[in-house]
Structure formats: C-alpha cells, structure tokens
Amino acid sequence: MTKRIQAKYKIDRRMGENIWGRPKSPVNSREYGPGQHGQGRRGKLSDFGIHLRAKQKLKGYYGNITEKSFRRLYAEAVRLKGDTSENLIGLLERRLDAVVYRMKFVPTVFAARQFVNHGHVTVNGKKVNIASYQVKVGDVIEVREKSKQMALVLEATASAEREIPEYMEVDHKAMKGTFNNIPALADVPYPVVMEPNLIVEFYSR
Q1: I need a surface site. Which of 11, 141, 178, 180 has the fewest CB within 10 A?
Q2: CA–CA dist 52, 193 (Å, integer)
Q3: Residue 81, exposed/middle/buried by CB under 10 A (0-12, 13-18, 19+)?
Q4: What angle do CA 204, 19, 92 make, to 5 degrees?
Q5: Which of 7, 6, 25, 45 is nearest to 192 (CA)?
Q6: For the sheet containing 168-171, what is the strand order?
Q7: Considering the entire predicted model, what is its pTM?
Q8: What contacts 54, CB < 8 A, 6 or more positions away?
Q9: CB atoms closer than 10 angstroms to residue 73
C-alpha cells in the first residue's frame, strides 16, 4: 500500500467519517480511529476540539493541504468581499488539483495533485504544474494529449462513483472541461457535512 493511500485512509479513520464517500473507506467497517488506542473510548470534544476537527476535515478532504497553505487561503478569504466561510470554499474549489478531481480526470484528490505536478494538465492551452494554481471563471482545463490514454485517467472517467458538479462542464471524450462559476458551499458535492464557519471561528480566536 502506498504512503498516499495510507494517508487517505488514516484521515478517514481519524475523522471517523468517510470524507470522500468512497466504497473502500475503512470507516465503512471500522468506525474507530487508527493506531494502538484507536478503539479507546472517545471523550467529548471541547469547543476548541470541535473547531480544530472542522479545520482538519476540510484540509484533509483537499489532499491534506499544509497548514501554511491553508492559512494563506484563509487570509485571502478574509481579504475578499463577502462571507469569509463561503470565500474559503470558493478558493479551495478553484485549486487546480481540486478542479481536476471534480472533472473526474483522476480518481482521488491525492492523485490529482500528483497528476498536476507531473505536468499532465493545461489551462487555456498552457501547461500548469502547480496544484495550488487558482483557476478563474471561464478557464479551460485539459489533459495533455500524451496523457489522455493513461490508465488512471481512463479508470476515473469511466467510473460512476462521482457526478460532475453543475459549476463546471466536462467533455470526457476530448478530456477537457470549463470552470463556469465559483461555487457556494451548498453547490459543492461533499459526501459529509463541512462547516467552514467553524474554521472562521477557529482562526478568529
């Protein structure tokens, strides 16, 4: 088992939720946490613990983004006009790795980050290999010609496991899609409840 898969499964079990909604998640059969003391009785979370868990869950969902990167996104969400929690979701969904994942060019958000970093994706015809690149409304994201027959891509596009969200259009025959608008929290197809408002409270402490 690769470190990436181990990390993905460990995040699920630490949260006690199947945060990507995948059938193979260990949470489906083992609801206790990972490690030696995983089956121990869980105490009631403090307010701080509740806020921290909300942050860790959202960070984990997007491929376990580093704290530095996540804090930078939060700072940008605060700077933008409007509701900070909604802005944060919009910025997360505009990450290129998240867009590639949503467009079902790869099976997981972890794979999406690697896929982008290895130069398999173009934005408006130009190669972009930065997973955190912020996609703009109207941008066209395409799998590079030499990468369109990769087993990873073919497996993901053929899978019925996820739906394409309404804020983007995708043509899997051409292996390209358009990012049509920045989504609100209610538009994002999270398999579990995300609470970005608690993250705002966490950072506002």
Answers
A1: 180
A2: 15
A3: exposed
A4: 50
A5: 25
A6: 126-127, 121-123, 140-143, 176-179, 168-171
A7: 0.83
A8: 194, 195, 196, 198, 199, 202
A9: 22
| CA proximity to 136, closest of 97, 199, 181 | 181
16: left (phi over 0), alpha (psi -120 to 50) or beta: left
Which residue bears the tokens 């121990």? 40
pLDDT digits (tens, 9 = 90+) for 5-53: 445 556 555 556 766 566 555 454 455 444 444 454 456 778 899 999 9
Rounded to whole angstroms, the Cα distance separating 165 from 183 reads 9
* Three state DSSP letters for the chain: CCHHHHHHHHHHHHHCCCCCCCCCCHHHCCCCCCCCCCCCCCCCCCHHHHHHHHHHHHHHHCCCCCHHHHHHHHHHHHHCCCCHHHHHHHHHHCEHHHHHHHCCCCCCHHHHHHHHHCCCEEECCEECCCCCCECCCCCEEEECHHHCCCHHHHHHHHCCCCCCCCCEEEECCCCEEEECCCCCHHHCCCCCCCCHHHHHHHHCC
Q: Residue written as tokens 């369109």?
A: 148
In angstroms, rounded to a whole number, what is the distance separating the alpha carbons of residues 66 and 47? 23
Q: What is the rounded distance in angstroms from the CA atom of residue 101 to the CA atom of residue 110? A: 9
- Kindly tell me if the per-residue pLDDT of 2 is higher than 50: no
